[in-house]
Specification:
Shape of chain D: globular
Number of strands of chain D: 14
Shape of chain A: globular
Number of domains of chain A: 1
Largest sheet of chain D: 5 strands, mixed
Family (chain C): Belongs to the binding-protein-dependent transport system permease family.
Main location (chain C): membrane
InterPro entries (chain C): MetI-like (IPR000515), MetI-like_sf (IPR035906)
Strand order of the largest sheet of chain A: 1-2
CATH architecture of chain A: Orthogonal Bundle
Chains: A mainly alpha (291), B alpha+beta (364), C mainly alpha (254), D alpha+beta (418)
Oligomer: heteropentamer
Helix content of chain D: 40-55%
Radius of gyration of chain D: 22 Å
Bound molecules: adenosine-5'-triphosphate, magnesium ion
Largest sheet of chain A: 2 strands, antiparallel
Number of helices of chain D: 20
Strand order of the largest sheet of chain D: 2-1-3-13-6
Subcellular location (chain C): Cell membrane
CATH class of chain A: Mainly Alpha
Number of strands of chain A: 2
CATH superfamily of chain A: MetI-like
Distance between the termini of chain A: 19 Å
Structural class of chain A: mainly alpha
GO cellular component, one term (chain C): plasma membrane
Helix content of chain A: over 70%
Distance between the termini of chain D: 49 Å
């Protein structure tokens, strides 16, 4: 597309600045981290070669293994409902009315809060003796559920908190996706006798396929790195039932100063995120025609 | 048998009236074109019939049944959108099957109908492609196919050809014409291309400014435009409308003088004409190029459009009046040249101050 | 959905002493401005606000510039290893913060970047998603525009700056809001990089202002902080909300 | 403007920010709360020592990630608040300066410290911090409910002397008041159970950390202690699903008899106890943990001022010493927060004794015990043990297994210390 | 004077050859149309001239200067894109000024040129609008205006009309014709609409399958198509090509027999014809409808297209051969009817097995 191919290297002038920073600020530390993961190391520069010790220990550490399970459970409990709710919200708010604009603002505003505040709010909602849910439950004559102290309820509780917090961005993405759809095909569908549900399932959903992929991929990557909510809300408890991989890494690094061990865990997390993301991408795009 | 009936349809958007008391009757298997300039309300009327818009007042009946209260899917009409509105994520087959599935047509029947439509439209080997993989012309056919398989009582086409390039357009036009002979259903087609309407329709409904201006066969509309708007709008290039004054009448027929002094004897009944300013309507084929001085009047050539089989000559009379004439395909006329124009008064039209058209009496 | 937000707002207007007995007190008066007063008079809040603004705006501006340049490069220009490099950038989406934050901290220490604005801003500039987003957006702009500009004698820079960039404004607005939001709420990096309180950002500063058992004895104050810290972002959002939706429509999923 | 040539020291502390109220106040006596007292103290020092510039860096609690980051970046502050139990971590890695010299320069002798405080700052035979207080856990008691349960002897609560007695009293309390005997913050508070366990292990002279790399938890003594709490939980004699704020509010509202929590809650609760109309009005006392096993003991910690290692000029050292001297001289003010003094002299002060409830708890300065100085990563270890204890107490895991797991995990952690 | 010169241009994409040794010369102020089916390489050639693509081999010269090494902005050419490619964020005025600013034309001069172009294009009162606020036709004019103000030596138009609807297209076509007489520059227009090419161009370059098939004036191409491809491609509806065998010659002119047995005497020189199978080429105007049995042969009507001033009749000969005929505007022919066809052999063409066209000798 350029004249004479003189500008074969011009592209570097544009991508160069970013790539440079990218390499220096993300990739280089990542490599340092990978290096660290093969060392015994502490926060203050002590280093001793460890080979694959850290990895071997990790894979034998029930606490770490449990954190992997917790992390995956959380991602599974968060991503699908989050995606679904965001999609429904977007469908509901995809109109040009003032009310819709105001609601868009409201749903966005929960994403504005920092995790500290979000967990604080939800702590007060979820605490069985004092929380809002407790007031509600008591008013209905039910025993309030111990969301944060029952190992089987804590993950759903964290999931709900996270969904509430993260709803804004995916909703925006879906709204955008919806606006992309040619309105004519809805009329065609109406003439084709498609009911509301059929229209949604056969027209809207397939048209949002790429948005859906993007949302799911971004959210999965984000939720596999879930941290602040559990650190602040449950401290990983009860009994480690909500410890995520990142919380594990944080504890290993800042609590135990085992930088090498933490780095190894971080690399495993990286591999997990990468694998899941690529898998999703492959699953969704493999049957798509070349574009 | 009457198929579609529109009774006093009225529609406004906000405070703006878009359709004003529109009524129309249409026969079974008739092909009607809505022709009119942009914004004249053609699409709106079509969409009211389809059920995609609601009329403010009036009735829509199809095969005797009142349908304006029914949802679009249950009106037994099919529509082909200007943008095709194919479902981009479905294959051609799925696109066609979608409406049938929703109507719970049995699987076998669906397959049979699709096979038949694909046969007719020559897209048999495209059935498993997605719209994005097809050319514009092929997509068009899929859109038509999607309508055909529903075997509706009425086809609605909103500018079905306007997205096609010129070459494809001519071909598709012929295809549409053949198609409608194969499927026994009434068709309404919206267009603002008069050639399209003339070529395809049994009757043309000319619309302008919220109202139906004239309803008639293509030939009626071409030969007897009801008013100046229809006269200008139908026919390409447009009819020349030149101010004229009544001079005299020979044998009860009006004779008029153009502003440059040239006189034209028409075959239009003198007494039908209202008093007041007249305009003489001349189609290009009624004005032919002759040697200077040899015709009714003389003119200077402004532009020559060579179409191969004939040549259009845009010229100016001495007093500046524009006039379009025609010449043979191998015409040697050049821009700036002075030519004579021979006006065939027998083919001329006259429009009175009320815009109503008056036409030559049939030759006896 | 909205209840927690209203609750936050109400709590921020309650006296801390009353809330210590029961957080349900939020639903009835008396309300007070004491928490906001405490925030505003608190010694360094102005400074933190300024720091947060500098860091967030700096990060946002940087991200927009870098990702626009890179997005244009990836979308429009052909150069060796383009696809490979783009995939490399996409891989960045999968790198968890934790895998890099400590090595990066050590590495920044060597460069003496800590406790400085560049030290706070630089890590935020590396936003693979932003590059992905802008690339998609640029791809959605018809190539004919580039060609028209080239025929108009525009240099590559003019073309980028005068023709394409203005067209990506909606995308910039979206990306800007989300980058600003992320930067504004970032906690870990400023916590470990800003070592003196005059370099704290608002999040770190507000966290430092909490007593150990703030949830017990300073709930109203905490909530007032939350509301206070959210105001700038909400303003930004409200200003840009139209652009945001439009932008994502342009790029998100082509 | 002329350049500021004063010597500058950077003081880094947690305890929050309260510039709104105390920004420029030097009236220490009028100040309230940890934050208020410390802020006015430093303001006052600054006012009295205009030749020194004190730069205060308030960090988010507990401030260690930040401190570690500062040290790693080679830019540590001069004087830092640190929990005594954490000193070993930094000291063990050689990141703190021994303070013998500085303290001597400030005119402070180690002998002035209480036993509990001195144990907290002496590591490997040297002093690594100036102790600032001793903090421990107490039983905060609602005497109105105790009376209702028939557990008052005049104005003194009747506390158990054995596990069996504890259970009996708890059941009686439950039966008579319909409320739980204990209010416990068990959710997201791992150190709570650890404090119980350590206290009563120490009371029996059990060795918890035989050396720097090992812990001994799977013992009959430990099992007995944990089982007691498991029983309390199982029988509903305690609140179960509360975290710290919920438990705090619960006690304030008179929803249970006894709330075992820190010294720092004395101030707020005493305020409740003197406000008429509130549930705790004239119904509040505190006591050290009762002697259920062995002898009187309390597992305590404390705050200290430490000096991270860095190059400092003699002038800076002098300034640090002067600040330490000033702080030591005013430690009484700090004890108004509810914490116990780290200086014997303050403990003996009539002014201190006159503070509410202090006489009841002063003994902790003597009975308070800390872990051996070689024990590192206390915070992580407590988190880890606490997690297992929580599982045991709530019945999620058998006691034996929880203790064995805890022992294994702690040993693994200790083995990794570099 | 020679303006543009293309010398042996060659271009491949990947392994696919798209242009094969294309050479062309063009005069100053000449209006040339590239006409050809989709994919024939028209746009590619245009883009090579503009500098948006690089040729693999060959030279491009403009006014004697070799330009193929120059960046697009320095070639002194202006281009109007099919999609207009207006800068959406700039006003009309800014759109036009952009290129001039880049070329550092003084401000006054820019204003003057824009004013003049706006005058010519009648968009003076639109100058401060943005493209999104304008109709398709207006945008088109802005795109042209943007090219005009640059006062280039050569205008390049890539299907400038294909995005317009039929009504606007005809009008714009006339405008384009007038325009080029006002600006003194060479114009190349790419189109696959033959009517467009015929109407506007001084010369037409017919392209197909990577090569130039014929270069000539519209009349040359219409009257003397170099080969069967050009014959079919130019003229609407397309020329009928019917297999024919040489029967005899009368006066040195070929006489052929159609597959249904009808004989047609041509005015094509017998001896120029190669041996082998022939095809007879008949434009619709060479075949007129007469009473059954009264013409050269008989046929059955398949489709009737009434265009107002004339009527096209698509018919089938007895042996199934399709043939297109023409009739008067008021023709009464109906589908299915048997009619006679009178073939004007003097206007017929013959194509040999090598596809080369042979045409009637000029009447003497
Ligand atoms: N949804 C709507 N809201 C407001 N006005 C509308 C709406 N739809 C159509 N109109 C207006 O109604 C009038 C008729 O529109 P309609 O689409 O029926 O015209 P049309 O004859 O189909 O024109 P075109 O040839 O351009 O398609 C126009 O003035 C148009 O602006
Ligand atoms: N960038 C490209 N990469 C690969 N092939 C291309 C590219 N551009 C064009 N082609 C191919 O080159 C051939 C000629 O394309 P070109 O666009 O010149 O045709 P055209 O005559 O302009 O057709 P149309 O009338 O459809 O615009 C086509 O087969 C096309 O597929
Ligand atoms: Mg319309
Ligand atoms: Mg092309």
């Amino acid at each position: 597309m350029n004249a004479g191919g003189r500008a074969r290297y011009a592209g570097f002038a544009f991508v160069g600045p970013f790539l440079l920073l990218y390499l220096v600020i993300l990739i280089y530390p990542l490599l340092l981290g990978i290096g660290l993961s093969f060392d015994h190391a502490d926060l203050f520069g002590a280093r001793r070669w460890a080979g694959i010790d850290n990895y071997a220990r990790l894979l034998a550490d029930p606490v770490f293994l449990r954190s992997i399970v917790n992390t995956i459970k959380l991602a599974l409990l968060i991503v699908p409902p989050l995606t679904l709710i965001a999609l429904l919200l977007a469908l509901a708010l995809n109109r040009a009315t003032r009310a819709a604009a105001i609601f868009r603002g409201i749903f966005f505003s929960s994403s504005v809060l920092s995790v500290t505040i979000v967990t604080l709010i939800w702590r007060f909602i979820l605490t069985p003796d004092a929380g809002l849910l407790a007031y509600g439950a008591t008013a209905l004559g039910l025993a309030p559920a111990p969301f944060l102290s029952d190992p089987s309820l804590v993950i759903p509780a964290v999931a709900i908190t996270t969904i509430w917090w993260s709803l804004g961005f995916p909703t925006m993405l879906f709204l955008a996706g919806l606006q992309q759809i040619n309105p004519d095909i809805y009329e065609a569908a109406a003439l084709d006798r498609a009911g509301k549900w059929t229209t949604f399932r056969r027209i809207t959903l397939p048209s949002l396929r790429r948005t859906l992929l993007l949302v799911v991929m971004l959210q999965t990557a984000a939720q596999l790195q879930l941290f602040g909510q559990v650190q602040l809300l449950t401290g990983g408890g009860p009994g480690g039932a909500s410890r995520t991989m990142v919380l594990f890494i944080y504890e290993a690094a800042f609590g135990r100063w085992e930088l090498g061990y933490a780095s190894a865990a971080a690399e495993l997390l990286f591999v997990l995120v990468l694998a899941v993301t690529l898998l999703q991408y492959w699953l969704v795009t493999r049957r798509e025609p070349e574009r | 048998m009457t198929s579609l009936e529109l009774l006093n349809i009225r529609k406004s958007y906000g405070g703006t009236r878009v359709l004003d008391d529109v009524s129309l009757e249409m026969d079974d298997c008739e092909f009607v074109a809505f022709l009119g300039p942009s914004g004249s309300g053609k699409s709106t009327l079509l969409r009211i019939i389809a059920g995609l818009e609601t009329a403010d007042a009036g009735e829509v009946r199809l095969a005797g049944r009142r349908i304006d209260q029914l949802p679009p899917g249950e009106r037994n009409v099919a529509m082909v959108f200007q943008s095709y509105a194919l479902y981009p994520h479905m294959t051609v087959r799925e696109n066609m099957a979608f409406g049938l599935r929703n109507a719970r047509v049995p699987k076998d029947e669906i397959d049979a109908r699709i096979a038949q439509a694909a046969e007719v439209l020559e897209i048999k080997d495209q059935l498993d492609k997605k719209p994005a993989q097809m050319s514009g012309g092929q997509r068009q056919r899929v859109a038509i196919g999607r309508a055909i398989v529903k075997q509706p009582g009425l086809f609605l086409l909103d500018e079905p050809l306007s997205n096609l390039d010129a070459a494809l357009r001519t071909r598709t036009r012929v295809e549409l014409a053949q198609l409608r002979r194969r499927v026994a259903a009434a068709v309404i087609m919206v267009t603002h291309d008069q050639a399209e309407a003339m070529t395809l329709a049994d009757r043309i409904v000319v619309m302008n400014e919220r109202r139906i201006q004239q309803v008639g066969t293509p030939m009626e509309i071409y030969a007897h435009p009801a008013n100046a708007f229809v006269a200008r709008f139908v026919g390409s290039p447009a009819m020349t409308l030149a101010p004229a004054t009544l001079v005299d009448s020979d044998g009860g027929h009006a004779r008029v003088k153009l502003s440059d002094g040239a006189e034209v004897g028409t075959r239009i009944a003198r007494k039908a004409l209202p008093p007041g300013a007249l305009r003489l309507g001349l189609r290009p084929e009624a004005v032919s190029v002759v040697a200077p001085g040899a015709g009714t009047t003389d003119a200077e050539v402004q532009l020559v459009e060579r179409l191969g089989d004939r040549t259009l000559v845009y010229a100016k009379l001495a007093d500046g009046q524009d006039i379009t004439a025609s010449d043979q395909g191998n015409s040697r006329v050049a821009i700036g040249q002075k030519v004579g124009l021979s006006i065939d008064g027998g083919a001329a039209h006259l429009f009175g101050p009320d815009d109503v058209g008056h036409h030559a009496e049939p030759a006896t | 959905m909205v209840t927690p937000l209203i609750w936050t707002l109400l709590l921020s207007f309650k006296s801390n002493a009353e809330l210590m007995r029961s957080s349900a007190a939020a639903f009835s008066g008396p309300y007070t401005l004491e928490n906001y007063h405490a925030i505003l008079v608190g010694s360094q809040i102005g400074r933190w606000l300024l720091n947060s603004l500098i860091v967030s705006l700096g990060t946002t501006a940087g991200v927009l510039i870098l990702s626009s340049l890179a997005g244009y490069g990836f979308a429009r220009l052909d150069f060796p290893f383009r696809r490979t490099l783009f995939v490399l950038v996409l891989l960045g989406l999968a790198i968890p913060e934790q895998a890099v934050i400590l090595p990066r901290h050590q590495f920044f220490a060597v460069l003496h970047l800590h406790n400085s604005y560049p030290g706070l801003i630089l890590p935020g500039l590396v936003a693979p998603f932003a590059v992905f987003f802008m690339t998609q957006y640029f791809r959605a702009i018809p190539v004919e525009l580039d060609e028209a500009a080239m025929l108009d004698g525009a240099s590559r820079l003019t073309l980028f700056w005068k023709v394409l960039l203005p067209l990506t404004l909606p995308a910039q607005a979206t990306l800007g809001v989300f980058t600003f939001l992320g930067s504004w709420n970032d906690y870990w990096w400023p916590l470990i990089s800003a070592t003196t309180s005059d370099r704290f950002t608002l999040t770190v500063g507000l966290a430092s202002a909490q007593m150990n058992y703030a949830q017990t004895s300073g709930l109203g104050f905490l909530m007032a902080q939350a509301v206070f810290a959210s105001i700038p972002i909400l303003i930004v959002y409200i200003v840009f909300q139209k652009q945001i939706v439009r932008a994502m429509a342009g790029a998100a999923m082509r | 403007a002329p350049r500021d040539t004063r010597v500058e020291i950077v003081v880094q502390r947690f305890f929050g920010e309260c510039g709104a109220v105390y920004g420029h106040s030097t009236d220490v006596a009028a100040a309230d709360t940890e934050c208020g007292i410390l802020t006015t103290l430093i303001n006052r020092f600054q006012a009295e020592n205009p030749d020194i510039r004190v730069k205060v860096n308030v960090v988010a609690w507990p401030g260690y990630p930040q401190l570690s980051a500062q040290i790693a970046a080679g830019d540590p502050p001069d004087l830092v608040t640190m929990h005594q139990s954490t000193i070993s971590d930094y000291q063990g890695r050689g990141l703190l300066e021994p303070m013998d010299g500085l303290l001597a320069e400030a005119g402070i002798q180690p002998a002035q410290f209480t036993d509990a405080a001195r144990a907290g700052v002496v590591k490997a035979g040297r002093i690594y911090g100036m102790p600032w207080d001793t903090i421990g856990r107490l039983w905060h008691i609602n005497t109105r409910l105790m009376a209702q349960a028939g557990l008052m002897d005049g104005d003194r609560p009747i506390l158990p002397h054995s596990p069996a007695e504890l259970l009996a009293q708890a059941r009686q309390f439950r039966a008579r008041t319909g409320k739980p005997y204990l209010i416990q913050a068990q959710v997201n508070a791992p150190d709570y159970h650890v404090a119980n366990l350590y206290t009563w292990l120490i009371a029996q002279n059990a060795v918890i950390f035989p050396d720097a790399r090992h812990v001994r938890l799977n013992t009959p003594e430990a099992r007995e202690i944990v089982t007691l709490f498991r029983t309390l939980n199982a029988e509903g004699l305690t609140t179960r699903n509360q975290d710290f704020p919920a438990a705090t509010a619960s006690f304030t509202n008179g929803d249970g008899g006894i709330f075992p929590t820190g010294t720092w809650m004395i101030g707020p609760y005493d305020k409740e106890a003197t406000t008429s109309g509130h549930p705790l009005y004239r119904a509040y006392v505190v006591r050290p943990f009762p002697r259920l096993w062995g002898h009187e003991a309390a597992f305590v910690d404390g705050h200290a001022w430490v000096v991270p290692g860095a190059e400092r000029s003699p002038a800076e050292r002098r300034a640090i010493a002067r600040l330490l001297h000033f702080l030591a001289a005013h430690e009484f003010e700090w004890t108004r927060t509810g914490q116990l003094p780290s200086f014997r002299a303050v403990l003996a002060m009539p002014r201190f004794r006159a503070l509410p409830h202090r006489a009841d708890i002063a003994q902790m300065a003597a009975t308070g015990a800390q872990l051996p100085d070689y024990v590192q990563r206390q915070s992580a270890i407590q988190g880890l043990i606490g997690e297992e204890l929580e599982a045991a107490v709530t019945g999620a895991k058998p006691v034996d297994r929880a203790l064995a797991d805890a022992e294994r995990r702690v040993d693994e952690l200790l083995a990794q210390i570099m």
